[in-house]
Design goal:
This protein has helices at about 20-25, 45-50, 100-110, 120-130, 155-165, 200-205, 255-265, 270-275, 315-325, 410-425, 450-460, 505-520; strands at about 5-10, 35, 65, 80, 130, 145-150, 180-185, 185-190, 190, 195, 210-215, 220-225, 230-235, 240-250, 270, 285, 290, 295-305, 335-340, 350-355, 375-380, 385-390, 400-405, 435-440, 460, 490. With about 525 residues, the chain is α+β, with helices and mostly antiparallel strands. Strand 12 (about 220-225) and strand 13 (about 230-235) form a beta hairpin. The two termini are about 25 Å apart. About 55% of the residues are buried.
């Protein structure tokens, strides 16, 4: 590789983790850092307007993945993933949730993730966090990732919380506090009503550093090895392949789909699978791409009366109001309130999260609302089912085969059905009931067990939280170094051996903060 451009660190993927790594590693002025991003700049207005996130789906800002047809639903599932600076932190619903203490202690105790227990990871959550309301000992107040109370909350979201409390849940002002359980309003990663992605929080303040180089529209095609040592990355630049050298480490931050895909394309993965595709095996790691799982979600939707719908604010006047004040319905993150609870006795922590939206949010929000509506979705956060990811081709431009195996363990389907019955009951109680006109989806709430199961199978979608395909303990060690090779780490949600209970953006940022410290001290 003599004569080729060289950096100390080459980071693949400028998403939730990659932006953190680029910013933290480039704090050392002696370290030359290259950040490669397959997508473009995060320049679209829709990226920065909280309520507009679903308008980014199936556009050039989206990897636009589809799973294989799911054996237990009979349908494939659309998986949006951000393809721009900030990655999925530039197109998510901005909910700030860390997960449960039991998640991280479980990583440590059951999956060989030494150093990843709750007490180990809390300092990195706090280092990242700039919470505008809560402080110590559990919250950070001066970190780059700003977290605030949303600047618009619809009356239906608050009414749902009141009804959930009437139904029997505790009121919870802080899902990231002492207890995760209960119902409340979500905090969001926004700055005065504007999305605050990792591109905003971490990358943009670092761009003036002479030792940080960022290249967009630069999809990586393979990690380059000399023997078992990662020495660089090849990527596409306007149709030609370019190779850059990494004298210290290559860091993969492509997420639960792209990182295992790139490992396999580079010869690190299940040996037989790679040989079938004509890929030379550098390291036979059978678990690359295994352990894929996600938070499946299924909703109950009502038409409403005597109130407004969020889409009523999506007007020219509403846009002007938002642009001038950063307030109004366009400052909503759609999923404004929710809850955590257990669907059965004896669980160590909640298995269910609720996301509530004061509009008809169906099929990832891709369907135009036909009536004023209200959605409450049951999201399974203690997931038993496991799937896998495999290559379809040795061509890096081909999308991989994605199989999360939703409901392959029947306990998952039972939990979602139980949660939906609870959501129907909450809709019939308390102050929310007066706003709910009639069932919209399904068309009746008097459902047999089989009818409810069919509703779940037909209407399950991702909650956008895939993890696990490069898990600690099987693919990477607790320092996130890829097993069997040198100078290569994975730093993103794929290293999580088990998905946390809650939205995964904050945990991914924590992973990157912790990894950056380990890399700098290595």
């Amino acid at each position: 590789m003599a004569g080729q451009e060289s950096f100390d660190y080459v980071i693949v993927g400028a998403g939730s983790a990659g932006c953190v790594l680029a910013a933290r590693l480039s704090e050392d002025p002696s370290a030359q850092v290259l950040l490669l991003e397959a997508g473009g700049e995060d320049s679209a207005d829709e990226i920065h307007i909280p309520a507009a996130f679903a308008s980014l789906f199936k556009t050039r800002w989206d990897w636009n993945y589809e799973t294989v047809e799911q054996k237990h639903t009979g349908r494939s599932a659309y998986w949006p993933r951000g393809k721009m600076l900030g990655g999925s932190s530039s197109m998510n619903a901005m909910i700030y949730i860390r997960g449960n203490r039991a998640d991280y202690d479980g990583w440590r105790d059951s999956h060989g993730a030494t150093g990843w227990g709750w007490d180990d990871v809390l300092p990195y959550f706090k280092r990242a966090e700039g919470n505008q309301r809560f402080g110590g000992p559990l919250h950070g107040t001066d970190g780059p990732l700003l977290v605030e109370d949303r600047r618009f909350t619809h009356e239906l979201s608050s009414a749902w919380v009141d009804s959930a409390v009437d139904w029997g849940l505790e009121r919870n002002e802080d899902f990231n506090g002492e207890s995760q359980e209960g119902a409340g309003l979500y905090q969001v990663t926004c700055k005065r009503g504007r999305r605050w992605s990792t591109a905003d929080a971490y990358l943009r303040p670092a761009l003036s550093r002479p030792n940080l180089t960022v290249r967009t529209h630069a999809p990586a095609t393979r990690v380059v090895f000399e023997g078992q040592r990662a020495v660089g990355v090849s990527y596409q630049d306007k149709g030609r392949e370019v190779t850059v050298r990494a004298s210290a480490e290559v860091l993969l931050s492509g997420g639960a789909v792209n990182s295992p895909q790139l490992l396999m394309l580079s010869g690190v993965g299940p040996a037989e699978h790679l040989r079938e595709l004509g890929i030379d095996v550098v390291a036979g790691l059978a678990e690359v791409g295994e352990n894929l799982h996600d938070h499946p979600a299924a909703g109950i939707i009502w038409s409403t009366r005597g109130t407004t719908d969020l889409v009523d604010g999506a007007t020219p006047a509403g846009l002007v109001r938002y642009q001038l004040t950063r307030r109004g319905p366009l400052a909503s993150n759609i999923g404004e309130s929710g809850a955590f609870f257990s669907t059965r006795d004896g669980l160590a922590a909640p298995d269910m999260q609720v996301h509530v939206a004061p509009t008809l949010f169906h099929d990832n929000g891709l369907r135009e609302p036909t009536v004023a509506g209200f959605t409450s979705a049951a999201t399974l956060v203690d997931v038993a089912s496991r799937g896998r990811l495999r290559l379809k081709s040795a061509n890096p431009l081909w999308k991989p085969e994605i199989d999360p195996a939703y409901y392959s363990d029947p306990v998952d389907l039972d939990a979602v059905k139980s949660a939906l019955r609870s959501l129907i009951e909450i809709g019939r109680s308390g102050p929310l009931a007066r706003f709910l006109d009639r069932p919209f989806l399904p068309s009746t709430h008097e459902l047999s067990e089989e009818a409810l199961a069919e509703h779940v199978r037909e209407n399950t979608q991702t909650l956008y939280h895939p993890v696990g395909t490069c898990a600690i303990g099987t693919v990477v060690d607790p320092s996130l170094r890829v097993l069997g090779v040198d100078n290569l780490r994975v730093v993103d949600a794929s290293v999580m051996p088990v998905v946390p209970r809650g939205n995964t953006n904050a945990p991914t940022i924590m992973v990157a903060e912790k990894a950056a410290e380990a890399i700098r001290s290595a």
